[in-house]
Amino acid sequence: MMGSNYGGYGGSGMGGGMGGSAGGYGGYGGRGFGGGGGGGGGGGGGGGGGGSHSYGHDSGGGGGGFMSPDVGASQDSPSNRGRKNNSNQSLRPVLIKQVGEATQPIPDAPFVLDGEEISQVTIVGRVIAVSQQSTFATYTLDDGTGNLDIKLFINDDDNDEKARQRDAIVEDVFVRVHGHLRSFKGKTSVVAFNIRPVESPDEITYHNTECEYVHLFLTKGGLPGHGVPQQADGNGYNQQSSMYGNAPGAAMGAVDNGATPLQAQIISFVSQYGHTQDGAAIPDIVQKFRGQASEADIRNDVVYLCSEGIFYSTTDDEHVKNTNDM
């Protein structure tokens, strides 16, 4: 298959043999999506074909993960110097096994995986345990490659809708997590800023594909025969960069990554409020772009960007900020 670390993931949900993996994503078909054991095998086989071998696609599809930018440039090239911090703020799709492989050179330093600094990650897995405290909830996730604790802090001013969303995340539900890597007493965990249920088994396959693609790109520079368009500065991967970043460059990256031009403009507009406590007010966003779309369409775009982990609510549901400004 790949001849790298990921070849070993076949037995635990990642490689070409996913159809036979009882503990990996193949087995998930019988637990949350689809029928019994046979359905799980079929789902795994489909995942193996669609996820493990289709690396040449654009990565901005429906799964909701984002690729780390600027990895096509040489570590010492002028175009790459000074961008490491921005790369660190990108949202990296990972497997739980990879979280365990990430290293932290010194306490409080950024984590490093595949030679790239990472901080924000997105993970897809099945909830196997839930612990509710007064100020936070801990969800233990299993993605077929390992288990990981996800901590979500609860704010006193959370509205009823957020409370209902939390209540919907129970054992055996598949979720996508967006969060920050943290280390405490030698144990790595994730502090989430967004958790939502997985809407389709395709999202699991997509996440697998994206994790594998990013790993290959960082460690091998892409795949033969699946070239990524080069930009003027030589950053081949930059065209598939995250929707994250500071305006207006982030907005351009968002267009390349599949966002609509309006969504890219909204991202740019909200980024201007990164220095404020409340962030951008949604009515102000509507007013700004009313000439381009209806209020309903603008609000739907904001909701979409929140669901993808690009924005998060601040003081109430009418104010949002870019997660890059957390």
UniProtKB/TrEMBL annotation:
Polar residues biased stretches: 74-91
Organism: Geranomyces variabilis
Protein name: Replication factor A protein 2
Compartment list: Nucleus
Annotated ranges, domain Replication protein A C-terminal: 215-318
GO BP term, example: nucleotide-excision repair
CDD domains reported in the protein's UniProt record: RPA2_DBD_D (cd04478)
Residue stretches making up the OB domain: 121-198
Keywords, sorted A to Z: DNA-binding, Nucleus
Region of interest (Disordered), residue spans: 33-91
Lineage, broadest ranks: Eukaryota, Fungi, Fungi incertae sedis, Chytridiomycota, Chytridiomycota incertae sedis
